[in-house]
Amino acid sequence: MKIHEYQAKELFRKYDVPTPEGGVADDVAQVESIAEKLGLPVAVKAQIHAGGRGKGGGVKLARAAEEVSSAAKDILGMTLVTKQTGPEGQLVRKVLVEKGVNIKKELYLSIIPDRDTASIAIVTSQDGGMDIEEVAASTPERIIKVFVNPLIGIQGYHLREVMFGLELEKEVMKPFGQILKNLYNLFVDYDCSMVEINPLIITEENGVVALDAKMDIDSSAVYRHPDVKAMHDPFEDDPAELEAAKFDLNYIKLDGNVGNMVNGAGLAMATMDIIKQAGANPANFLDVGGGANAEMVENGFRIILSDPNVKGILINIFGGILRCDVLAQGVVQAAKKIDLNVPVVVRMEGTNVDEGRRILAESGLSLINAENLADAAQKVADIVA
Ligand code: ADP
Ligand code: MG
């Protein structure tokens, strides 16, 4: 579960990680009054979950009172488009107003679990700021990774490895080391799947300050953190995912154009793999569940079709508890209610498969039958190609 920058910074402060003083606002008058209290300059920052706000016009530094008002007017209510929001962008409902800081150097710092080494990775670079993706692509040697065994925890040598790697000046080592340790503890205590600060800055006064803050908390662990649970912002949820949750469907939207409906998470993962192997890209992950009924299938189908990127659908069902005839009924019901305007490939095996095939064949829908998994993937990949 992602939280906003201002919320992550509240947790940072709890762990003695310095952040600029500031306050959150949802109208222009509030922005002006916070700015007045803080004194100029201030940064006015759109609060959406996606990064890359600065480049999209969602972060503005205001040096005069008029600039505060105009930044607030520009940003509040804008649909902010960044590399991470996709072309549809995200409506800005809140801004963080914080003290403008004198930046000497912008560093990058993140903490993430690393599956390959089964450890917690500290990823950092001297070349922080808004172009970190570019740094990673063109000068990967400028990115340093230090791996911490979670059973041992963060030790002095980890801190030194990071700090020497960043070529920090002596004066900042002590505060930096303490901050990194605090962040590591925050990461572990809060069951995070990511903490990212870009930029973590060195100020003109040799202070170390987190100017940006991103946190992602493992959704399965949120129940352990009521303070984080309260930070959930429903406006940031994907509408299709919310709709799916209402029907107990396990749906995650992805970037491709092959919609797929599968029963069982393992089969769904395998189906996404074979779609990719056939040269196409899945538009979603959807596990209708082992015990799905016709209504769930119908809703799943409707949710897949609500994604305008979907150019073809692959239904891959292994009929066990969810029988093939029930699945077929759900598909037919859904297709009759919805204007089905994309081709559908069906691969179905298992309980009552003949009955299922008969229902589909007699439905009058133009469905494409597949012999097996590879055939199904190839057929749907050919459709969207
Ligand atoms: P994003 O990563 O979404 O673009 P950031 O919070 O990193 O948003 O802000 C973008 C840039 O704006 C930062 O790299 C920094 O240069 C500048 N900035 C952000 N907050 C402040 C602040 N409080 N004072 C001065 N500059 C800031
Ligand atoms: Mg940033």
Mean pLDDT: 94
CATH domain class of the largest domain: Alpha Beta
The biggest beta sheet, please? 7 strands, antiparallel
Distance between the termini: 34 Å
User: What CATH architecture of the largest domain do you see?
Assistant: 2-Layer Sandwich
CATH topology name of the largest domain: D-amino Acid Aminotransferase, Chain A, domain 1
CATH superfamily of the largest domain: ATP-grasp fold, B domain
Total of domains: 3
Rounded to an integer in angstroms, the radius of gyration calculated over CA atoms is: 25 Å
> Roughly what fraction of the amino acids lie in strands?
25-35%
Bound molecules: adenosine-5'-diphosphate, magnesium ion
Percentage of residues assigned to helices: 25-40%
Query: What sort of overall outline do the alpha carbons produce when their principal axes are compared?
Result: elongated
> From the helix content, strand content and strand pairing, which structural class follows?
alpha+beta
Number of strands: 19
Total DSSP helices: 13
